[in-house]
Amino acid sequence: MATSPSSHSASSPGSAPATEDAGLTERYVHAATRRLPDDQRDDVAEELRGSIADRLEAMAHERPDLDPAERERAALTELGDPDRLAAGFTGRGLYLIGPELYPAFQRTLIRIVAVAVPAVILVVGAIDAIDGDAIGAVVGGAIWAGFTALVQICFWLTLTFVLIERAAPGHDALRDSLEVRWTPDQLPQLPAHPGRLRDAAASLAFLAFMAALLVWQQFRSPIDGTDGEALPILDPDLWSLWLPLLLALMAAEAVFEVVKYRTGGWTVPLAAANTALSLAFAGILIHLSRADELLNPAMVAAVQQDWSGFDPGVTNTIVAISAAVICVWDIGEGWVRALAGPALTGTTRG
Amino acid sequence: MDELLAGHLQELRRGTAVMAALAILREPTYGYALLERLAEAGFAVDANTLYPLLRRLEKQGLLVSEWNTEESRPRKFYRVSPDGEALLEALLQEWQALHTSIERLR
Q1: Which of A14, A73, A97, A212 is most open to solvent, judged by the fewest CB atoms within 10 Å of its CB?
Q2: Which of 52-71 (B) contact A at CB < 8 A?
Q3: Could you tell me which of B20, B34, B57 has the C-alpha nearest to residue B12?
């Protein structure tokens, strides 16, 4: 152990006060070998010590202008980061997620974030709105919750993939479930007709507008009560169940629009999903309007003070009929396009 | 252009360092001496690549090693095993085949 000239500080600590760097080589050898298995560590360390000593000896001839401490520094700098050397000895990769797993990691992350973060924002926003928080607090709270969800998802998903990267090979089932092994089935569809992108964007914008309208009428209604306070148009009691449900349905509808765009058009399963969503929307609106639970009674009373002829029953009937007509139209359109679809796109699909 | 050439030459030589090391190690040699001989022969391998490589080749049974404590400091001498000889032979044949193949393509 003490045969190497560069390890004099370790063998005779009292005799080397000349320079603080006297133990650099020993520190380097320790850093490069500390994570090796016990049965290899001493052997690799001894060889590395010898190799550095050989290099120092050669350097003494090449660079006589340098003093021994400078030579030691130069030789270790040449050898580079001891962690890199250690990784070479252990065969471990110098990365968190390697090129084999990275594409699956990226795909999974994008998929989860795209679904979970908007869902968290909507749900947290709806709950805060039900609690009657101020609009600013609702928006701020929802965005903060979305950000927290994003950070959490990124952290845990990255940790999962880092662990899989380090797990012994042979966890094929796990890798298959994460779609690490690529198959042609994972190929994305060709970009749809440009018109479809416009349709999808318009649908999403409309949904966002309706959701905003639903929240807006609660806080910034144009109808004032006798004390000048804004009266919500819809019955505030509906926030306990029905309005959050409508918001959730809008979120589902938004997901549906994205899926429809990525699929490249209507299919039978999409038409079926569209039927379910349309029936749920229309069902809620028709039920509420027929039971006269839709409008805020205080708002109705305030309107009737200025306009005695205002009849909430007429409004309810208009809402119910409109909901039914739109529902039938929407369901019908979905099925017609889905069933006609294969014939129209037959040339591109082969 | 020189940088471009240097990059491609480095790529080309990367795979040949193992062959060169196996060829030199027909005579028992220690790590630093092997590094210098490789550099002289134009195979610029970094020390922090070569030392782990020697361990890996030994683990694969292509090299055998022995500590020599007779000189000024103990040194680990590496030498090709019969398996290593056979691998070098196979690599050289492939090398020749690639050369012939490229020449025919030109």
Answers
A1: A14
A2: 52-53, 55-56
A3: B20
